[in-house]
Design goal:
- By secondary structure, the protein is of the alpha/beta class.
- It folds into 3 domains: 217 residues, MFS general substrate transporter like domains (Growth Hormone, Chain: A, Up-down Bundle); 34 residues, no CATH class; 238 residues, Vaccinia Virus protein VP39 (Rossmann fold, 3-Layer(aba) Sandwich), CATH 3.40.50.150.
- 55% of the residues lie in helices and 15% in strands.
- The strands form 2 sheets. A 7-stranded mixed sheet has the order 7-6-5-8-9-11-10.
- β1 and β2 form a beta hairpin.
- α3 runs antiparallel to α5 and α3 runs parallel beside α7.
């Protein structure tokens, strides 16, 4: 029989539960989208599907709620325990599906749907709980609960990227939110003084989740390492990406979000080509900017040019630049370049830096990750490439890596065509070279005129390149590129080209 009055403690418990479940619900969506983007790629599709499927599940949950016959407090507590167990293990399940099966997308969809159903049950059961204790459902009551839900969502959207992901990682964050769900169940069960059996079950669930939280990092590393051929020696999450370092014999490899950044066996071919083509195309370069290149390999090469007085390295992720300075493996490879007094590290978005800096550079070397999602597309846009000459000196040159000319020819062509369209008064050439760990790799160089290209001498101490080889590589420019549309901020064609190219080489 319904009580005529809800005690202050009970009311506080229910409203507190509304805030906590809101925080947890949004974080689960973010966790699922992030995990899918890490493992499967295509962040826009991953987050869109995570949101869409979860919301669809929430709709199902909302329809199911009125059909539940057991008491609202008990059913809400059971719902939170089940959500905690399934949601908490969602990352573990997705990692396992990715590493050991070929149905990772299906598993992702099922998990998102189930989590969504449980989240969708929460608000109706909270309202039903008020009703069961004598408070009639009203617009005012629903407004208060929804307001707390939306306020909690804002809190979650700030806490996840700024605190939880960088400091706890994805799997531990999932278990922490799961712990929060079960804690909400305990709060309701204790406050309402219902179902001691379920209270005991929730206590067991808390102990289980606590144990999984403690061992999550080791568990995540063990499962995720199955995706890498070589032993993993470093596994970390920053605020921006997953960083993995592997080593087998004398081959050290760096991966960012599962994308290979370099292999120590052949990285000199890449970095000497990228740096040499630009640095040998400008007389006595003094001020050089590097966009990306947080591993310090490119800075190592630029420091070989005696005229260089200052290198401004702009890389978004401070974790990567710190790692390049402090990791013995990487610091040995980059010859402690990032600790050189000539090098200034600025942890900032390269796009923002290009439009805000008042400096002029003799050479700008762009070594950013491939345009695999819309967040990166602005760094391959017409607007970005049009801005670069504005921060160059009159003799200045710039060069960019332009993805694989073999595996992603249309993306390579799009980079060239986009730069060409925004540098119409300059000499723009596309060329390629073979990097064994990557295959054929493309570059695009923009110089004031054709006479400037490779007009200067290379340093003597290069490991791979020399004057003859680089001249052959650069001046044998690629002329038969596919016709592609220009990539802009509003129409990021580069991502579409890249994804379509790469899909041909993936196994789904």
């Amino acid at each position: 029989m319904a009580r005529s009055k809800l005690t202050k403690a009970e009311s506080t418990a229910i409203f507190s539960a509304a805030v906590l479940v809101a925080v947890g619900g949004i974080i689960y969506e973010l966790i699922l989208g992030t995990a899918a983007s890490y493992l499967i790629g295509d962040s826009i599709l991953s987050f869109s599907l995570a949101t869409g499927i979860t919301l669809f599940g929430m709709g199902i949950g909302s329809l199911i709620a009125p059909r539940i016959k057991i008491s609202a407090a008990t059913s809400f507590a059971i719902n939170e325990i089940l959500l905690g167990i399934i949601g908490g293990n969602s990352v573990l399940i997705l990692y396992s599906a990715f590493s050991f099966t070929k149905i990772s997308w299906l598993v992702f969809a099922i998990i998102s749907l189930i989590v969504g159903i449980f989240i969708g049950l929460e608000i109706p059961l909270l309202v039903k709980m008020f009703e069961s204790f004598g408070r009639k459902s009203s617009v005012s009551l629903l407004s208060k609960i929804l307001a707390l839900d939306y306020f909690g969502a804002l809190l979650a959207s700030l806490v996840f990227p700024l605190i939880l992901l960088p400091y706890l990682g994805l799997m531990r964050t999932a278990y922490l939110v799961a712990f929060l769900n079960v804690l909400v169940a305990v709060l309701i069960l204790y406050s309402m003084k219902v179902s001691k059996k379920i209270l005991i079950i929730s206590g067991i669930a808390i102990l289980m989740l606590g144990a999984l939280f403690s061992g999550a990092n080791r568990l995540e590393k063990q499962i995720d390492s199955k995706a890498y051929k070589d032993p993993v020696i470093l596994y970390e999450h920053s605020a921006y990406q997953k960083i993995v370092l592997t080593k087998f014999k004398n081959d050290t490899r760096l991966f960012l979000n599962n994308q290979l950044q370099f292999s120590s066996l052949d990285e000199a071919r890449y970095h000497e080509t990228l740096s040499g083509a630009a640095m040998a195309s400008v007389k006595n370069p003094k001020k050089v900017a590097i966009f990306g290149g947080g591993d310090g390999m490119l800075a190592r090469e630029v420091l070989k040019y005696n005229s260089v007085e200052k290198i401004t390295l702009v890389d978004l992720d401070p974790f990567v630049t710190d790692l390049a300075k402090k990791s013995p493996e990487i610091a040995r490879l980059n010859k402690n370049s990032l600790s050189n007094p000539k090098v200034e590290i600025i942890n900032q978005d390269a796009f923002k830096f290009a439009f805000e800096t008042n400096e002029k550079f003799d050479a700008i070397l762009i070594d950013l990750v491939d345009p695999s999602n819309e967040k990166l597309a602005k760094l391959y846009s017409q607007q970005f490439y049009a801005q670069i000459p504005k921060i160059l000196s009159s003799k200045g040159v710039f060069i960019t890596q332009a993805t694989s000319s073999y595996f992603s020819p249309n993306a390579f062509a799009s980079v060239f065509n986009t730069i060409k369209s925004s540098n119409s008064s300059r000499e723009v050439i596309a060329f390629q070279t073979n990097i064994p760990s990557f295959g054929e790799w493309g570059f695009v160089l923009s110089a004031p005129n054709s006479n400037a290209i490779l007009s200067q001498k290379l340093p003597q101490e290069l490991a791979y390149q020399n004057q003859e080889r680089l001249s052959y590589t650069v001046k044998k420019s690629v002329s038969n590129l596919p016709k592609t549309e220009i990539s802009t901020l509003l129409t990021p064609k580069i991502v579409q080209y890249y994804e379509n190219d790469i899909k041909q080489w993936r196994y789904y």
